[in-house]
Structures are given as C-alpha cells and as structure tokens.
Amino acid sequence: MQRLDMKQLLSQKLSPQQIQFIKLLQIPTAELEARIKEELEVNPALEEGDDNEEYEEEERSDDSDDEEYDDPDSEFDNDDNTLDEDFRDEQGEEQHEIEIPVKDEEPTDTKESSDEDLDLSDYLNDDEIAGYKMQGDGPGEDEDDREMPLADTSGSLIDNLLDQLGFANLDEKQEAIGRQLIGSIDGDGYIRRDLSAIANDLAFSQNIEASVPEIEAVLHVVQSFDPAGIGARDLQECLLLQLERRPQDDITEHAERILNETFDEFTKKHYQRIQQRLDLEDEEIKEAIALILKLNPKPGGTGPVGMGKVQYIIPDFILTHDNGQFNLTLNSRNAPDLRVSPAYTEMFQAYDKASKKDKKMKEAVTFVKQKLDSARWFIDAIRQRQNTLLRTMDSIVRYQRDFFQDGDESKLRPMILKDIATEIGMDISTVSRVANSKSVQTEFGIYPLKYFFSEGIATDSGEDASSREVKHILKEIIEGEKKDRPLSDDKLEKMLNARGYNIARRTVAKYREQLNIPVARLRKEL
Questions:
Q1: What confidence tens digit (pLDDT) does each residue in 476-521 have?
Q2: Ordered structural domains, the chain, with CATH
Q3: Residue 404, Cα to own-chain centre: how many angstroms?
Q4: What is the pTM of this model?
C-alpha cells in the first residue's frame, strides 16, 4: 500500500565556491603554484597579468563606462602593501568582491563572439564544474607531471643499484634475481621479505624458478654494492656488512665480536655484561662501541641516491622585525596576478550587437559564461585565501609577540586553535586548515605554524606555561645530565617540580618521547 509522508529536514550544503576556497586554503605555497598552473591550463578565460592597464584605457576612452567597469581590486593587485593595510585597517570588511566587466545576463541573452581566433569547440566538452575541482577530485592526465619545487633526484637509490648490477658480470637469470631483490629494498635500505617469498614472486611474475640458495648468492652480490650495508635483512647484518669494508684492525675485530656474540646486550646498552663476556678492557670496549655508533643504520637514506624526493620548505609568510615593529607579508607566490581574459568579456559585448542569434552561438556563449564564472570564483577564492592567511598569522604574531622578538622558546605562551579562532571570528576548522601545512620565515628560522600551538602547564606562580617551554627545559636538563648516570623520568619529574612546573611523571615521559629522547637506560654512555 502506497503512503504519502511529509517530513521537515534541516540540512547544510557547501556551494562550489566554498568547496574551492576550503581546498585552496589548506594547501601550502608549493602546491598552490601547481594548482594555479593547472587552472590556467584548463580554463581559457583565466590568465596571468594585471588588469589595471586595460581598465585605465577604458576610462580614458569612455567616461560613461567608469562606474560600470570600475575594478575595486585594482589597488590590491598593484600594491603589494595593500594586503597588509587592508588586513590591519579593515578586518571586519569583506574584501573579496571582484567586479568583472561582463553584464550579468542569462544564457538566452548571450552575445556572438567576434574573436575568430578562439576555437570554442576545443573546450565545449570540458567538465562544467572544473572551476572548483582540485587535485585528486577528478581525472587529470598531467597530474603527476606538474612542476613542483623539488630537489634534483636524477639518481635514485634503485637506479644507482641497477647501474651497479649491470657491471656485476651475472648471467641472465642472476640479473633477473638481482632486479627482483633490488625492487624489494625498502626506504631504509633493507630487504625485509623472506627469500622464499621472493622466490615465489619470481616464479609467478617472471616464470623464473630459483631456489633460496641461488637467491641468497645473488643477494651477497647486491650487498657488495654501494652504499655499504644495503640489502641487509636486519640491523645486525647491516652493521656487520659495513664493518667488513673497514680495515681489519683490533677495533674492528672487537666491534664484530660485539655484534656477533652480544648483539642483544648491545641493543640494551648492557656494556658491563659485554665487557665481562668478551673479556675486553675499558678502552677496548669504548673504542669498539664508538666505531659501531658511527655506522649508518639506514643506508637507504644516504647521499644523493635516497629513495624519495626531497621537497624544499617554502615559507608562506615572511615576518621581519624593525625598530620594534613587526612587518608581516605573504610570500609573493601566494599572491599571483590573475585576471579574466579580456577576449572573453568582449564576446558578450559583440553578441549584444549581433542581429542573428542562432542556437549554436547561444551554446558557445553559455560555455564562455561558465568559464568566466569559474575564473571569477577562482580569483575570489585566491584572494579570500590571502586574507584568511594574513588574519590568522597576524593574530598568532600578536599572541606570541614575546617569542617573535628574540626567538626564546621559554617565552612561548600556551595557545590553542580556539584562542585564534575566537580572536579573528572564524571557525576552529578554518584555523586548523591554515596551521596544518603552513610555515613562517622569521629572523630565527622557519617554523611551521603548528609549532606555536601548545597546551598549558600549571605553575606555582598560578600562571600557565607553554608545553613548548617545559619541553625546552626538559631537553636542557637531559643534555646536561651525566652520560654514565642518566636521569630517570622520576628524577626529571622532581627537577621540573622544583622549578615550579606542576607536572606528572607520565607527562614527562610523553614529552620525552615527543622529543625523540630514549629512556634513561638507552641514554647511558661509557
């Protein structure tokens, strides 16, 4: 039996412009450059350049069009300092509205194009909502070919090892096994897969039958390649492979004995047990341990032949301090000069004067209007992004003013996302998107914005101290401890409490782990 029900629902949906702004806001400067380049390629109505000259010529030629075609953002593009001035003086005003010299008409009132050089058919089949698509949202053949600010990685570790394999005088089967082994090396330079599993891979993928001894024989060849220790199956083998290439003196011999006979004790830093078991003098064990500690436990990440690409850090903000005043500016790559193509805007004017308006021409101008809207949304989203970034960073600078004056970590104030969101009148999620992947260049170095956010720790004075400050003091205490008698977490807790920080032992352990500092037993040195 059919029923007809009526119910009331309240839902909230994001507009395409909001989706575009959110996605642009959370990407860093390096990715923004690639995103702008992608948009310029897919949207012919968007182009680089400053539109001040065009509008000035229109004003001189036709005074009657001054109000209709005035560009309120011309000063924004012409003066780099306007960003900061608008931000400081008019935080409450909307600064993102962009006027395009195009009459707002429906597709039924579209105009004929007078630009015969522009072939609209090349774009008619494009995605209608490409204006707010981002990387990963849809298909893109050139997505992996975008230029990014990456270091030169022309020689990767795998390529380097394959080159060495070509000079190893192996037969065809052994070379295939060698390639399979090299392909099984992980980012640290280890082969962690079992050799029997690699034998199965060879059988199924390349139809090559190879026994484990055959694979192990080729593995020894691969382990002789540079860098030393490559292709090891565990840390012990990695360190021994590196020792084999050193001059075989007494120190190297003692180091090999420590790794072969007392590796478990070595990993736990039970040096007295090692000394007793191997009957070594104090000086002998010190020299052997010092030699082992100089070896590389991760040969896959050494030199210019590392596994992955190294990406440069490009700061999103530049903060300078001059005569007691802070000057905050956006990286110029965050403020590109973009404009709507004049050729596209002229199409509507030409269509107004056309006497014949057929269906084909209406479809073409509908497409043009869609691209113009997409370009306008993109420019507007870029400028909203600039404004939001500046408002957020300016609030952080005011909140952490003492730190930015001299770079002293102990002067960092407790600050959470809610503090900044409340001050600038935005949602916490917006501040989170700004802080997650952005960085600022100061006179004391480049810091990620997340660095300035920390929880508060109660003190005897009644004021809260930043967890960054507590971590900084904890690190100083550990660096100044006696290396033969490192401080336990209990002793560190008492020392911090004596300095006025009300902190528990478990919190000390958490901060120590966040600083990548091992427990007291593993910090012990001879």
A1: 888 888 887 888 888 888 888 888 888 888 888 888 888 888 888 7
A2: 157-294 (no CATH), 317-452 (no CATH), 456-522 (1.10.10)
A3: 23
A4: 0.55
